[in-house]
Amino acid sequence: MITEVVAGTLRAAPRGLCVLAVDGLSLEVAESAFHHAHVRPLRSTFPSTSTTAWLTAVTGTGPGVHGAVGMVHRAPGADCVTHLVTGDTYAFGSRRTPGTALLHAGPTLFDRAAASGRAALAIGAELERLTGPWVDALLHGARIVPSPAAAATLTIDPVSVAERTVREVEAVLARTYDAPPLVWAYVNLDDHIHRSGYDSRLREALSLLDTAAARWADTGWSVLAHADHGQVEATPDAALAEAWARLDAPAHCRMPGGGAGRVRWLHPLPGHEETVADALRDTLADHALVLTPDELDARGLLPATPVVRARIGEVVALATSPRFPVPDPTVTWEHGSVSDGETLVPLVAWNPAPEPAPALPSSPRNHTTR
After folding, report:
1. In sequence order, what are the beta bridge partners of 17?
2. How far apart, in Å, do the first and last CA atoms of the chain sit?
3. Does 146 reside within a domain?
């Protein structure tokens, strides 16, 4: 579990621990880009999406407990779905019954560090500007380091993101602390990868992070990095998207669908579950695997706990092809499903090395972020 690796490394860190939380980085790209570090494989959560994986990473519990089963899901009892990052709700019609708690997140690695008498600091201009239950749960117990970057100047250019991260981390590392601190920095490369993939600009950003992390390690800091998920190429098919939209409608479903990227689900009207599932299988054919929550559980992907059942739809589609109808048809790279490109992610350590990493699991149920 990442929480155990972080805790063990922090205990042994002579000056403190810096964790780079790199959004969207695949194992294969990390292995080719981080020349000054040790890179080991880990496996992401299911769904392989940020809201699920990052919350698992900081709490040590999976979506069957914390409830972040996707980017968009329903709260128990609701007749609408909620976007966990923006807080926006979506329903068929204007009336929305809000339901109960969206999340059940527990103590974070920041809470645990603070309880041991250490400063727990979080850096990340993008997260700093978010509101709502997900970011509150993610950063619970952390002291947010305000970014000098104005909202208007934030960019998805990966080199600019890396340069800003390095500046802001180094300012924090230069401070004096009573006990070795935990410094956690969010590095948003994901938005760029969605549009341009793992291009030369992205690799230049990783080189900047690699050089900086090695420099920090040389001065006595322990430095780790890990990712939430990778990405794979996407070429969404307009005809498949239209077919999905026809099913994701009041004639067939009681509320809009949920999920994220290459894993999406529908909430069929009572008694229509098999009809909708069969129609979706026929429509998506070789481009998706259509399962129920029980079948996800049987495959070791997502435990069908009461928390999950209350939030996920009864018909779940997992992409098996680049043509899968993702929610945003403008992206050229996407994630959420179970391919190695999406689920194999790196645990990176610069000298001094951390405790041994957990073994790569044989089933996606045992995730990197747990």
Report:
1. 182, 222
2. 4
3. yes
What residues make up the domain containing 166? 2-64+103-230+340-350
Look at residue 41 and give its three-state secondary structure. strand
Averaged pLDDT score across all residues of the chain: 93
Strands 120-123 and 143-144: parallel
3 state SS of 314: coil
**Who's near 88: CB < 8 A, 6+ residues apart?**
82
Which are the contacts of 297, defined by CB distance < 8 A and separation ≥ 6?
303, 304
Cβ atoms 203, 34 nearer than 8 A: no
Query: pLDDT category, 367, cuts 50, 70, 90?
Result: very low
Residue 263 in any domain: the answer is yes
For 139-156, the pLDDT digits (tens) are: 999 999 999 987 778 899
Please give the pLDDT value at position 366: 36
The number of folded domains in the chain is 2
3-state secondary structure of 226: strand
Give residue 354's Cα distance to chain centre.
Answer: 23
